[in-house]
Specification:
about 475 residues; alpha+beta; 8-stranded mixed β-sheet; 4-stranded antiparallel β-sheet; 15 helices; 17 strands
Length: about 475
């Protein structure tokens, strides 16, 4: 009986500890910051200029022979006409075919900052669009066209802010560089050229800001306030191919297991052995930041990850989605090839998986994981190409404080929180010369709007355009 009482007391103390930690966790939620000073912008003019940019179909292509150079040249020629003050105050050079690198001298060169965007866009299937994909027209309060979200709006926001500030006599505290790529969508080399140019000149940026997170709502259970998610790192990427061989010949007398059959078994084995989930630094920091605004039951979990971390990892795998992708290396088999004809046995069958790597998984470790999952020598695992995940930015530094303050002043109701970007961007190249590389697309986007990126009927609400300009104006004033 005494043992039972002791056990009950221990359990009671244990649950009391969990509850106390959850209650204290809830008290960490800060009130919204006081209203910031007004930041008027020319919203209607910005919409007109973005519309003109969208009307130029700068569709990039990995094949240089299919690259529509006149369209890209027309886009670049448009910028000095729209932003004469910027191009008078800044030096501008064209690197590696499409990359534009502008330098705005500040009062000091000690802590330069790079603001990034890309002006190339992905292809369209015109017959699937409700309105022409490069019409650049405002319809029912929305500006339609490829590039309105990804990322001509970001390029516009930077230049609109700089043009207005230069006109007012503003000079930034530190040198600013604008790096605009025309080949980001095809994993091009423009951003690499910008990095190497800055490295050769001894420029070591204190901070880099590129596309990535956004202001979102309804993505975190029980949290009613919007969240401004800012990427402090991004996942790596690798394409890994599985290859199975067999004797060719006529399909009328097949072997027991063809190359396609052996390959299929290997694919299923890989999918049945997902990479383990881990509480990565961005996930921990996001839970620490957003958790206090969650209902008590979730706060109980988030405040006691030492106890419930395993449960959270298991739950993420069941639910899937972005949280799961932030916590593990993912693999998606996207391509397969066998024989070119139905009655011919293939000598070789291949399946290709696209992997997105968290910070603790290298490309080779990912390939080894697949080899162990397959467990047979009949299937070869080839790494076609890959890059490891980027390092995490410093959340205790000036860069994060400056960026998060500009976000909070622009969207005062939002909870500014770190997260891990699960896609790839050009900014990963800048990790070679800069520690604090942040990923934030300066827009408030609904789930439907986020789904329009790289999709049919891409469009942006006109009020979002002015808000993007406001954000970059506030940010540049702090740099």
């Amino acid at each position: 009986m005494l043992i039972l009482i002791v056990v009950l007391l221990v359990l009671l103390a244990f649950f009391a500890l969990l509850a106390v930690r959850a209650a204290a966790f809830g008290k960490r939620a800060a009130d919204p910051p006081p209203p910031a000073a007004p930041c008027p912008v020319d919203g209607s003019g910005a919409v007109e200029r973005l519309a003109a940019m969208v009307r130029i179909p700068t569709v990039s292509n990995p094949d240089p022979a299919k690259f529509d150079e006149p369209q890209f040249a027309a886009f670049r020629a448009l910028l000095p006409k729209f932003y004469p003050r910027v191009f008078a105050a800044c030096s501008c050079e064209q690197l590696d075919h499409t990359e534009l690198l502008l330098h705005w001298p500040g009062k000091s060169a000690a802590a330069p900052v790079v603001l990034m965007a890309h002006y190339d866009v992905v292809p369209v299937e015109e017959d699937r669009w409700q309105h022409p994909p490069f019409c650049g027209e405002v319809i029912a309060g929305e500006l339609w066209g490829r590039g309105t979200l990804d990322t001509k709006i970001t390029l516009l926001g930077i230049l609109e802010a700089a043009e207005t500030l230069i006109g007012s006599g503003f000079v930034p505290k530190n040198d600013l560089y604008f790096a605009f790529a025309g080949d980001e969508e095809v994993n091009g080399t423009g951003a690499k050229a910008a990095v190497e140019t800055l490295r050769a000149r001894g420029v070591k940026p204190a901070m880099v800001v590129d596309e990535g997170g956004a202001v979102v709502e309804g993505v975190f259970p029980g949290v009613k306030r919007p969240m401004a998610v800012v990427g402090i790192g991004e996942k790596g990427m690798a394409d890994i191919q599985l290859v199975a061989h067999s004797e060719g010949g006529h399909a009328s007398h097949p072997p027991r297991h063809s190359a396609v059959g052996v390959l299929s078994r290997a694919v299923v084995a890989c999918e049945n052995h997902p990479f383990p989930a881990k509480l990565t630094t961005p996930v921990r920091e996001m839970l620490r930041t957003v958790g206090p605004y969650a209902p008590f039951g979730l706060r109980l979990v988030f405040a006691n990850l030492w106890c419930f971390g395993g449960l959270l990892c298991a739950g993420a795998e069941k639910l899937g989605g972005e949280l799961n992708a932030m916590m593990r290396t993912t693999m998606a088999f996207t391509m397969a090839r066998g024989s070119k004809q139905s009655n011919v046995m293939p000598n070789e069958a291949t399946a290709t998986a696209n992997l997105r790597l968290i910070n603790t998984t290298t490309v080779e470790q990912a390939a080894d994981h697949l080899r162990r999952a397959i467990g047979e020598d009949a299937v070869e695992v080839r790494v076609l190409h890959g890059t490891n995940a980027s390092p995490y930015a410093d959340l205790s530094g000036v860069g994060w404080q400056t960026l998060s303050q500009a976000v909070a002043e622009t969207w005062p109701d939002a909870i500014v929180t770190p997260y891990l970007m699960i896609a790839c961007s050009d900014s990963r190249h800048f990790s070679a010369i800069c520690t604090d590389v942040f990923k934030f697309s300066a827009m408030a986007l609904s789930a439907e709007q986020r789904g329009l990126i790289h999709n049919d009927n891409e469009r942006v609400p006109v009020e979002t355009v002015g808000k993007t300009v406001e954000f970059f104006t506030r940010l540049i004033q702090k740099l």
